[in-house]
């Protein structure tokens, strides 16, 4: 995918502030620190379109980016990290739930998981939520650079077994090596085309 433009549109901190729905939206969801923001930067070939951090809880608002003026990437704040302040964690639910539930423009959700961790109840709950609301979903197993090839296969099998829905495609990805980038783009573009 050739990126002609990738522009920050808006950060939303409260449910009443969501922008109007014009372009198809692709949401990036998952636990804090799994690499949602890093994935977006890799997809658009920009080091710092989205701020990333080794400290969990970097993204605390819902952030909208317009890509090539044809669709919108939505970077969601992460969940599930005990070190993220309680006040922030309490705001997550109404903010993200409102977005995921009401958003007609949302055409695809990417659930990002850290390949090193077995999915949590929150990850599984989110997958079931997407299924309930008929939101097509792709699972991205990020940070595969952390595993040797031989250990990777075993870990992928373990993770797939713990996920509730077999119908979702699973992509192996690394924001460091950029492996899997083409496959993620393919899933996004196929879905956007389907909606045209
Ligand atoms: P929140 O905004 O807190 O929800 O986190 P996030 O999911 O947006 O994660 P972010 O992209 O900020 O990345 C978290 C940390 O993981 C950063 O230190 C990244 O450099 C690192 N990271 C992201 N992707 C990869 C990867 O594929 N491999 C490795 N080794 N590190 C990664
Ligand atoms: Mg982030």
Write a concise synopsis of the structure shown.
With 196 residues, the chain is of the alpha/beta class. It has helices spanning 36-43, 86-102, 121-132, 149-162, 181-195; strands at 6-12, 25-30, 62-67, 71-75, 106-114, 137-142, 169-172.
Description:
By secondary structure, the protein is an alpha/beta fold. The chain has a single domain (about 5-195), classed as P-loop containing nucleotide triphosphate hydrolases (Rossmann fold, 3-Layer(aba) Sandwich). The chain has helices spanning about 35-45, 85-100, 120-130, 150-160, 180-195; strands spanning about 5-10, 25-30, 60-65, 70-75, 105-115, 135-140, 170. The protein has a seven-stranded mixed β-sheet, sandwiched between helices. It starts with 5 loop residues before the first strand and ends with a helix. The model has no long low-confidence stretch (mean pLDDT about 90). Magnesium ion binds near residues 59 and 75. Guanosine-5'-triphosphate binds near residues 143 and 146.
């Amino acid at each position: 995918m050739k990126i002609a433009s990738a522009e920050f549109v808006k950060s939303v901190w409260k449910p009443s502030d969501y922008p109007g729905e014009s372009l198809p939206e692709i949401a990036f969801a998952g636990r804090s620190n799994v690499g949602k923001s890093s994935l977006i930067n890799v997809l658009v070939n920009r080091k710092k379109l989205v701020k990333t951090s080794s400290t969990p809880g970097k993204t605390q608002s819902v952030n909208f980016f317009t890509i090539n003026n044809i669709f919108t990437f939505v970077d969601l704040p992460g969940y599930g990290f005990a070190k993220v302040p309680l006040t922030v964690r309490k705001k997550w639910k109404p903010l993200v739930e409102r977005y995921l539930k009401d958003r007609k423009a949302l055409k695809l959700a990417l659930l990002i998981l850290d390949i090193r961790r077995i999915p949590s109840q929150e990850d599984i709950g989110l997958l079931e939520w997407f299924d309930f609301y008929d939101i097509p979903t792709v699972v991205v197993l990020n940070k595969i650079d952390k595993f040797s090839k031989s250990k990777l296969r075993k870990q992928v099998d373990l993770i797939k077994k713990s996920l509730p829905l077999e119908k979702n495609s699973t992509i192996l990805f690394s924001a460091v090596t950029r492996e899997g980038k083409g496959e993620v783009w393919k899933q996004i573009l196929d879905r956007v085309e389907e909606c045209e």
